[in-house]
Amino acid sequence: MVAYDFGIKYNILRCLVDAGCDVTVVPATFPAEEALAMNPDGIFLSNGPGDPEPLVKVQEEIRKFIGKKPIFGICLGHQLLGLALGGKTIKLKFGNHGSNLPVMDMETRKVEITAQNHGFAVDLESLGDVACLGHENLNDQTVEGIRHCTLPIYSVQHHPEASPGPHDSHYLFARFVELMEKNR
Fold first, then answer.
1. What is the pTM of this model?
2. Which domain covers residue 67, as residue numbers?
3. Beta carbons of 110 and 175 less than 8 angstroms apart
4. Strand spans (E) along 6-140
5. Domain with 10 in it: what CATH number?
6. Edge-to-edge strand order for the sheet containing 71-74?
């Protein structure tokens, strides 16, 4: 798989490898065409700092993967994916920061304790019928994850790789491996 580095944490790479991935890390500005030429099983969009909206060229590159490869995004990668799918982001008044924030996986209805450090959130309504709510922050009801309605694409706002921190969300890496295997 190809992992885009927007400020990736080493433990994310460790979690992907532990889930069975052979990971090639590329810089944030790496052309989508070159990544697709590697014929990866999937595309990973990493965490990173800052406001996602000014990263227009990155969003354009992400759009080139949609419908071609499974995609999994975390944090900034989640926000960039939401924008690439045609959505918008909103600046949160205070943001969500800490290592004990409850999030519900809307597919399983399981509540996870998560680590978060972000000041922006994806506006689900702006995505229309392209994506649905994948995870919800139970403290402020902000979007913690999205799932594309028909394609093997999903992302989460929180940090499933948290180290040190809760490990409730580690299953997300195995879920991505399953998506890639199904879509080979």
1. 0.95
2. 2-182
3. no
4. 24-27, 43-45, 71-74, 88-105, 111-123, 131-137
5. 3.40.50.880
6. 24-27, 2-5, 43-45, 71-74, 153-156, 143-148, 131-137, 88-105, 111-123
64 CB neighbour count, 10 Å cutoff? 16
Q: Is the pLDDT of residue 167 over 90?
A: no
Query: What percent of the chain lies above the pLDDT cut of 90?
Result: 94
Secondary-structure percent of the chain, ordered helix, strand, coil, rounded to 5: 25, 35, 40
Q: Which residues are catalytic?
A: 75, 159, 161
Return the bridge partners of 61, or none: none
Q: What is the largest CA-CA distance in the chain?
A: 42
How many domains does the structure of the chain reveal? 1
**Residue 44 — pLDDT band, cuts 50, 70, 90?**
very high
Q: Is the peptide bond before 31 cis (omega within 30 degrees of 0)?
A: no
Q: What is the pLDDT of residues 87-140, one digit of tens each?
A: 999 999 999 999 899 999 999 999 999 999 999 999 999 999 999 999 999 999
